[in-house]
Amino acid sequence: MFGGKMIRDNQRIFNRLLVLIDAVIIALSYLLAWFIKFRSGIITSNYAGLDFRFYMTALFFVVPGYLLLYSFFRVYTPMRIRRIRAELTNLLKPNILGLLLFLTILFIIKQEHFSRSMVLIFFAITVVLEWATRIAIRYILRMARIRGFNVKQILFVGYSRATEGYIDRIKANPHWGYEIRGILDDNLERGIEYKGIKVLGSIRNLLTILPENKLSEIAITLGLEEYGKLERIVALCEKSGVHTQFVPDYNNIIPTRPYIEDLMGLPVVNIRCVPLTNTYYRIIKRGVDILGSLAGIIVASPLMLVITVLIKVTSKGPLIFSQERVGLHNKSFKMYKFRSMEVQNEKEEKKAWTKKNDPRVTPVGSFIRRTSIDELPQLFNILKGDMSLVGPRPERPFFVEKFKEEIPRYMIKHQVRPGLTGWAQVNGFRGDTSIRKRIEYDLYYIENWTIGFDFKIMFLTVFKGFINKNAY
C-alpha cells in the first residue's frame, strides 16, 4: 500500500521524466522539420545560405524556451482525471504561443533567411508527437492503475450528497487510480456503508489517521449544515501535509458550474455562469446566427418551395403556422413553422400537446414533422433575432407558466435566445420526453457555451437531430 509521501515522490519523479521526454520530442520535432523542409524532397526549397549548423544553434534556445512555456501553462499538472480533449488544449496553448514568439523574434532580429515554413512544420510535428506521447502515457498509466499500481489513497471527511457523487464517479472510473479508504462522519454509526465504502468513525479519528502518513488525499465533503467545522478540519489536514480538497455540498443550489470573482481579496461565488452575458460572446454568436440563417435560407429554398406546394394542394389553410413562444428575457415572439395540422381552434391548440398518431396532423404534416422540415421557417426567426441557430427550444406561454412552478431552475433557459436545435434535442430529448431531463441538458449548454460547442451541436443535428422517433 503506497503512503502519501511515496505517491508525492513518485509524482515528482514522473514530472521530471516527462520534462525530459518533452525535451527529446521538441528536439526531434525540430530536426524532423528541418529534414522535411530541406532534405526530404517533399517541399521545394532554396537553402538561402543558412547551413545546418546555424539552424541547430537555434535549437539551444528553442528547447528550454518551450519547456518554460509548458511549465507556465501547467502542462505538467497531474493528468489523472483530465480529459483527453483538455490535454490537447493544454498542449496547443504553449505551442501556439511558442510559434508566435519564434516568428516575432525572427522578425525583430531581421533574419530573413530563416525558413518560416520550417517553423510551421516544427509546430505541427511538435503538437502531434506531444499529444501522441500523452495518449500513450495516459493509456499505460490507466492500465497500471486498473491493476492496482500508482494508486492514490483517499479519505472522505463528512457524509453528504457530495460524498456519494464523488464515490459514484471514482467507482465508474477505475483508471483514475483512487482507492477509497473510508468515510469519517459525526452523524452516522460506524460500519454503515455506501456502495461498499464504510464509515470508519467520527471526524475526531483524523487525529490518529493523519500521523500514519498513508493518505494521498483527503476530500472534505461535509453537509451544508456542518460547514462550521470546515476551518478546523482544513487546518488539521494542512498541518499534516496531506493534499486536501473541498467538495461543496451545494449541488441542489448550484447544479452545474459556478464561477468565482475576486472582490479585492474577497472571493465571491456566483450562483450561475452564463458566458453569453458577455457582450463579446453575444456578438460572435449573433454573427454566426445571421450568416448561418442566410446560408440556410438560400440552401433550403428549393425544398421550402416544394413543401409549400404540397401543403397548399393537400389541405386548406395558411402555409405558415405562427405560434406565440417565450424567448430571451421572458419576452414573447411569434415562431414560424410550416403548417402540419388541420386548422383548429386557437384556445384548444394552446393547451394541447401533439400525441402519437394525432388525428389533427395531415399526411404531409406527419412527414415534415418527423423529418423536422416544418422547422425551416424558423430560419427567418433567427434572421430577425428572435431565435438562434442553437439554444434551448422555446415553449408556449401556457406551458412556461406550468413548468416554472413544477421544475426548479426552469426559467434559467430564458437567459439566452431559444434555438432551432439544442443540446437536449441532439441527445434525444424532444417531443414527448422528460421535461426535467431536457432542462438539465439546456442548463448544461447555457453554462458551458462556447462557439465550438455550437458547431458541435449543429454537426450532430445533421446526423441525429432532424429525424426523431419522438417528433409526432
UniProtKB/TrEMBL annotation:
<dbReference type="Pfam" id="PF02397">
    <property type="entry name" value="Bac_transf"/>
</dbReference>
<dbReference type="InterPro" id="IPR003362">
    <property type="entry name" value="Bact_transf"/>
</dbReference>
<comment type="similarity">
    <text>Belongs to the bacterial sugar transferase family.</text>
</comment>
<feature type="domain" description="Bacterial sugar transferase">
    <location>
        <begin position="285"/>
        <end position="464"/>
    </location>
</feature>
<dbReference type="GO" id="GO:0016780">
    <property type="term" value="F:phosphotransferase activity, for other substituted phosphate groups"/>
</dbReference>
<feature type="transmembrane region" description="Helical">
    <location>
        <begin position="117"/>
        <end position="137"/>
    </location>
</feature>
<dbReference type="InterPro" id="IPR017473">
    <property type="entry name" value="Undecaprenyl-P_gluc_Ptfrase"/>
</dbReference>
<feature type="transmembrane region" description="Helical">
    <location>
        <begin position="94"/>
        <end position="111"/>
    </location>
</feature>
<dbReference type="Pfam" id="PF13727">
    <property type="entry name" value="CoA_binding_3"/>
</dbReference>
<dbReference type="GO" id="GO:0016020">
    <property type="term" value="C:membrane"/>
</dbReference>
<feature type="transmembrane region" description="Helical">
    <location>
        <begin position="54"/>
        <end position="73"/>
    </location>
</feature>
<keyword id="KW-0812">Transmembrane</keyword>
<dbReference type="InterPro" id="IPR017475">
    <property type="entry name" value="EPS_sugar_tfrase"/>
</dbReference>
<protein>
    <submittedName>
        <fullName>Undecaprenyl-phosphate glucose phosphotransferase</fullName>
    </submittedName>
</protein>
<keyword id="KW-0808">Transferase</keyword>
<feature type="transmembrane region" description="Helical">
    <location>
        <begin position="13"/>
        <end position="34"/>
    </location>
</feature>
<keyword id="KW-0472">Membrane</keyword>
<keyword id="KW-1133">Transmembrane helix</keyword>
<feature type="transmembrane region" description="Helical">
    <location>
        <begin position="290"/>
        <end position="311"/>
    </location>
</feature>
